[in-house]
Amino acid sequence: MLDTDANEEGEGALPPHTVDNEDLSSIWKLIEGTEANGRDIRSLIRAPKEAPYGLQWEVNVAMSVLSPLSQRWNIEICSALYIGGPARFNNLKGLLSGISSRTLSDKLSALSGEGYVTRTVEEGPPVKTLYSLTEKGMRVGRLLGNLVAYLKMDEGHVITTTED
Length: 164
Fold this sequence. Notes:
Layout: E1 17-19, H1 21-45, H2 55-70, H3 74-84, H4 89-95, H5 101-113, E2 117-122, E3 128-133, H6 135-154, E4 158-160
Parallel strand pairs: 1-4
Antiparallel strand pairs: 2-3
Helix pairs in contact: 1-6
């Protein structure tokens, strides 16, 4: 997701966020724990090799469950709602640089149908429509947050305050 205020000076790179060494060390330890949990979960959930299961079944199921998030704009929309919380349509559109109103509307409907997003209408005047993540969407956000944290640090978007 792009920060709408990040590029005011016309530069291409976003400035890195700085954390102290102790916090950075704690983040790395949490990520390592997540990796260990992932290995443990993978060993418990692995399908048997006998038909109808096996490698092809595993790949097909993975593709199926990841499909709603892998479609263009879906993960960006979920990320914006996870990071920023419930949002009105135009606020959400403003966070997602380059998305059209039609595409956002279509994607919100699709994500709602998949159980990731909910639409709530608050009676007015004025009538206020808010989009937010469902419990499923929040859980996916928390799980993906570990991956995003790792990638932010790996790509230099989060750095330490002092050199080691």
